[in-house]
Amino acid sequence: MPRFSGKTVIITGSSNGIGRSAALLFAQEGANVTITGRNSDRLEETRQILLKSGVPEKNINSVVADVTTSSGQDQLINTTLAKFSKIDVLINNAGASIPDATGATGIDQGIDIYQKTLQLNLQSVIEMTKKVKPHLIETKGEIVNISSIAGGSHAVSNFISCFHEPNCFQQPDFIYYSCAKSALDQFTRSSAIDLIKYGIRVNSVSPGVVATGFIGAAGLDNEAAKKFYKHMAAHKECIPAGVAGQPEDIATIILFLADRKLSSYIIGQSIVADGGSTLMMAMQFGDAM
Ligand code: NDP
């Protein structure tokens, strides 16, 4: 029997990228899935990918919703319960670094950008966790949050200006995004301790550079995004593995953390999957001589 047969999984941010890949893997492994995002065309693409891979229509609940709104969150949960009667797994994956349309960088970015960034990457996770908690208590379920290596102990701002060809790219800035992901890591740890007494496990994945819609959502156009991934893969001081990650590289870890048989003793941890990026020192010796 497929390992997630009979399980119901909500995957936020599954209209694209990592969430889409996770939805496909869960559904192929027998799960009922609630897929969601704001963009109805992209969400329908995800649904079609699942159907074409042989997932039965009855196993998919597709919901266009903004996960930062209370009504959007309720819609996700209520339609899931109406269709599948229970919730076993919550994947808090929706996230983005929201660009400041004025072009401001660093702490010159508006406080409204800070608020929107925190609302999406942190607050919506807290709200979804609170709302799904009673249902996960019933099923002794799992939560997997998608964080980022940007939440680590190093500084993260306009890192694209650190590149060897700084003028090649538009300049997204990750200062508020990295604050949100740091706080999310702390929420993962603390909520894991709070919820394990009910039998609910919470863990997270911290990806490095993964080729998805992320860098476009952060403000780069298609050409610049391609250049970005090419540049990062070509510079082993950025990604020692020499390749940008693919959504499935992260999705397989999400499934591992959602699979109690495989990962039951892991509580409140984050698995870093970044091709080695975080092992590199900021200090590069290339130009020293
Ligand atoms: P994508 O941009 O490809 O996907 C992001 C998903 O989040 C989309 O489905 C998008 O849907 C959804 N989303 C964004 N805002 C909202 C909102 N307000 N309401 C509902 N859904 C929303 O990026 P990734 O797949 O890369 O991102 C997935 C997670 O991985 C994020 O948490 C991101 O921070 C994290 N991550 C990604 C990295 C990377 O290099 N790709 C690196 C580290 C972490 P829609 O637009 O339809 O609303």
TrEMBL record:
It comes from the Eukaryota. Gene3D superfamilies: NAD(P)-binding Rossmann-like Domain. SUPFAM superfamilies: NAD(P)-binding Rossmann-fold domains. It holds the Pfam family adh_short_C2. This is Uncharacterized protein. It comes from Caenorhabditis remanei. The lineage of its organism: Eukaryota, Metazoa, Ecdysozoa, Nematoda, Chromadorea.
